Amino acid sequence: MDDGHTVTAATARYAQKKEAILAAATAVLNRQGVKGMTLADVAAKVGLITTSVTYYYRKKDDLAAACFIRGLERLDAMIDEAAAQPDAAARIRKFLTLYLDLSRQVRAGEAPPLASFTEIRALKEPMRASVQAAFADIFRRVRGFFDGEAFAHLDKAERNARAHLLLEQVFWTGAWLRRFDLDDYERVRERMYDILVGGIAAAGRDWAPPALPDPTPASDEGQEWRETFLVAATRLINQRGYRGASVEDISAALNVTKGSFYHHHEDKDALVVECFKRTFAVTRRAQLAALGLPDHDRQADGWTAVSAATAALVEYQLSDHGPLLRASSMGALPIEIRHEMSDGYARGSNRFAGMIADGIADGSVRAVDPLVAAHMINSMLNAAASLQAWAPGVTREDAARLFARPLLMGLMAR
Fold first, then answer.
1. Looking at residue 377, which CATH number applies to its domain?
2. Which of 128, 227, 270, 289 sits in a 20 to 30 Å window from 198, CA-based?
3. pLDDT tier at 324 (50, 70, 90 boundaries)?
4. Is 355's pLDDT higher than 70?
5. What is the pLDDT of residue 31?
């Protein structure tokens, strides 16, 4: 008969194997998405056969949901520690410190990664609803960072926007922190904190971004339908994820047959590449228009250019021509295409960094790290695509004030 020691040892082995499966599944999920993840892939990573994994998780969606819930539990523990700090600035610093410490441990192979929460949308019901409810609880707790007298002037939509901005800033570090050595993480954290709390505007500069022309690329004569096609495809891919949006779904959204789809695009990868290229073109046109803004008889300063470009692009996300394609769709592309699209994002980021450097030189922008600030602007622009989900009722006209201003002027700004 088994004694207590045998039962305890068996329970420990079960828990250990379950944790190994969760860690392996999270890595596969982050690389291939919920739709692309298979139990066989996960089993292979932990040296099991597929049926052994089903002993712990009967279906793939059960396993994917467990990955998200475990990630949310770990995130919740960070928020617990941050929420205990005495004021909003200290809460932001602690949260940023804990998250980047975890990121360093993951990259060093010392801790399993968190699941990419953008993939929650790809879960099937009822799993999706339960995981989304857990994420909403996390969101409300982060919104609580901005409670208190210092933020009494903010309404609920403004506090929601700040919570969304802060969460997406830490989540999107996974897309650009790998460009830095592990030894640089502490320095990057301090520079991120400086921007989150103090913004990039020099003292005395106000939020008054000039309006820019519509940055939508002009269509060739007789090709106007392509703009409609790409906008509809972008919206569907942003909503369902790259793997979650099938050719059938995209064709139905565009009211065309699959045959018509393949007449115009070799495959889904080719369509996504077109959507990315359109996103890069819109970003570039807004940036160049901002750089060309006049200021009496000379070019506008760096602050005016940066604020105008970011405001225009946030507004574009909520326009009839928006949104722009989220960078998360890049991860599911074939590696050779992914590198090309990553270079496209890097060019836009580099242009923002140059605009910020110009502003530092002319005195209109604080002495911040231009590269880190540019990555944070890109993260904010990506997150703006889902702003309406977290700040219901926000209009295009108010989006930049609600979302771009807190980053560029600082989360503490009145």
1. 1.10.357.10
2. 289
3. very high
4. yes
5. 85
